[in-house]
Structure formats: structure tokens, C-alpha cells
Design goal:
By secondary structure, the chain is of the alpha+beta class. The chain has seven helices and five strands; from the N terminus they run αααααββαβαββ. The protein has a five-stranded mixed beta sheet, with helices on one face.
Length: 239
């Protein structure tokens, strides 16, 4: 038991801060406790730590829920899909709570992404290739898609010279892997304006389809685009 200057025992101060600068819930005035604050002022008034504390519900004997929430946030920072096993390594966070956190973050991610463009047909993706259709150099573009065919991102992978372009599966799939994409839609322009697939186009398409199969990322289609139109290699039987 702590002692004061006269050597007498005293109760621990309720204003003492935890090591991470966070009080335990019971040390806070009732109006400042996350759950009561949410009920009185709405969820938007809570910090990220407070929101996660409400989700977790409680901490442990040695770790207050606010400190636990802070540690979870540090572990999940910058990760769109945190790993359950990584969260379970945090002291005080068991399997059930780790699953709760991952599920909540995934649900939030899906709600945030609602309304994103969905690609159901090759023509749905043409707006993403508009900028390369009239280019005088060959551009190769990869669009990452979710399992629901929602557009995650669209990127130029390589830029060639005139009508030559060197494309490697490693460069094509690097970002979709990081995106956790379920599939990709590929496209490149023909500066010549010819809407015909060359033997090199067909060979590259088959190579990328095979690489995608190994990675678990499906190649939905490979388009050749020009200022006047587009050609689907899937419709041509090459995907």
C-alpha cells in the first residue's frame, strides 16, 4: 500500500494515469465514460480509442479497456484487414474479442465502400481506360476488383515505346495482391488504332491468366482499346 510523507498508508489516487496516458474507465467521471458519452452525445463525439473501448466492453485486471483499445489500434493502424492471430498476440485480447474487432473493421470497410463502381461487363470499365485510348505510347492498365466486382483501384502498370511494351506478371499482380483483390481487369491501348490482338497480346494474356490462377486472382478480361473502340480478348476466346 502506498505511504504518504508521514509514513501513513493511503489509497491510490483516482487521478493517476495509466502507463499509456489512459485512465481506467472507473477513474473517469461518469459523463466522460465512452458508453455514457456515446448515449449522451452520439458516436461521432468519441475518439477512435473510445469507440473501440465500447466495442471491447472490458479490459483485464492488469489492463484497462482504454489502454487495451489503444494497443489494438496501434496493431491495426494502416491495415485494411488486420490478422486475427496478430491481434490475439496482444495481452488481454482473446480469440472472441479479436474476432469482434476484425469483424467490426470489415463491416465498416464494406459500408464505407458501398456505392463504389461495379464492373459486370467489359464496357463498365471503359471509363478507367479513357485516358490511354488516344496515347501515342502503349500503356498497360490493371484494375483491381473485390469479390463483388467492386473497383478497388486502377493503375498504369507500364508505359512502352510506340507499340512495344514489356509487361511482367510480377508488376501486374503486385498491387492487386496488396489490395487483396479477388480479380483484375486488364487493358492496354494500341497507338496504331488497330483493334486486333497480336500474337504477343494473346501470349501475354494467357501468361497472366496462368499467373493469376496460381495467385488466386482471376483475370476477368483483357481489353485492347483505341480512340475508336475496344476489343475483348475474353470474347475472342483468349481468357
Amino acid at each position: 500500500m502506498p505511504r504518504d510523507e508521514d509514513g501513513r498508508t493511503s489509497e491510490p489516487s483516482l487521478t493517476r494515469w495509466d502507463p499509456d496516458g489512459l485512465r481506467r474507465i472507473r477513474q473517469l467521471p461518469r459523463v466522460d465514460r465512452p458508453r455514457e458519452k456515446l448515449l449522451a452525445r452520439g458516436a461521432e463525439s468519441l475518439s477512435d480509442v473510445e469507440l473501440l473501448a465500447v466495442l471491447l466492453g472490458c479490459g483485464t485486471k492488469k489492463l484497462g479497456v482504454l489502454e487495451l483499445a489503444s494497443r489494438v489500434l496501434r496493431e491495426t493502424e494502416g491495415k485494411s484487414s488486420p490478422d486475427v492471430n496478430a491481434l490475439r498476440s496482444i495481452h488481454g485480447l482473446g480469440e472472441a474479442k479479436a474476432c469482434q474487432v476484425v469483424s467490426a473493421l470489415e463491416l465498416g470497410r464494406r459500408w464505407f465502400r458501398k456505392g463504389r463502381p461495379v464492373v459486370r461487363h467489359a464496357s463498365d470499365a471503359l471509363p478507367y481506360f479513357q485516358d490511354i485510348r488516344g496515347q501515342k505510347q502503349e500503356h498497360f492498365v490493371c484494375v483491381s476488383l473485390s469479390g463483388a466486382n467492386e473497383v478497388i483501384a486502377s493503375r498504369v502498370v507500364t508505359v512502352g515505346l510506340l507499340d512495344t511494351n514489356q509487361v511482367h506478371p510480377r508488376e501486374v499482380f503486385a498491387d492487386p495482391i496488396a489490395d487483396r483483390a479477388a480479380s483484375v481487369l486488364l487493358a492496354h491501348n494500341h497507338p496504331s488504332g488497330t483493334l486486333e490482338a497480336s500474337p504477343e497480346d494473346i501470349a501475354l494474356t494467357k501468361r497472366l491468366v496462368q499467373a493469376g490462377q496460381l495467385l488466386g486472382i482471376r483475370v476477368l478480361d483483357h481489353l485492347i482499346v483505341t480512340a475508336d473502340g475496344f476489343l475483348s480478348l475474353k470474347q475472342e476466346g483468349h481468357v
